[in-house]
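Open question from group meeting: does this chain pack into something compact, or does most of it stay loose? Before anyone orders reagents, we agreed to write out a predicted structure and look at it together. Recording both the input and the output here so the notebook holds the full record.
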Amino acid sequence: MSKHIFSSLRWCLVGLVTTITFTPSVGQSADKVLDTARRLYAAEKYDSTITVLGTYVKKHGTDPSMEKIVPLLAESLVRVGKYSNFGNLFNIYRKQYPRSDFMPRLFYLEGVVAAREQRYVDAVEAFSEALRAGAVPPVDSLALEGA
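Structure tokens returned:
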């Protein structure tokens, strides 16, 4: 029992330290936030990436930098299995930036999510849309994970 309590406490402390260390300040530039998030993502700290980018998006949601920031947030959401959050974010992004260079990748991620949720017709449609939008292989290793 006490082992479980200590384990839970340790994860709470890790989350607190991550939040304090990586949460962007009000005046922090989008480039700085994106650099921090990319480092976290590269280190496979997807939850921390979500915290950093999510905090910035909440404060600066109408900033033009969202076109670059939201795709990395979407990637991280897929990595941790937050498919509903990804879907909501994708739908908003798709309406806001229909001609973004990131759309092929986001359609691909939509296909990955649909396949993982066993919505195979939707997956084929999303992968097809990714190809129509200009995706070229290799797109990413997400399709191979969990296979």
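Observations to bring back to the group:
The first helix runs from residue 2 to 22.
The two ends are 35 Å apart (CA to CA).
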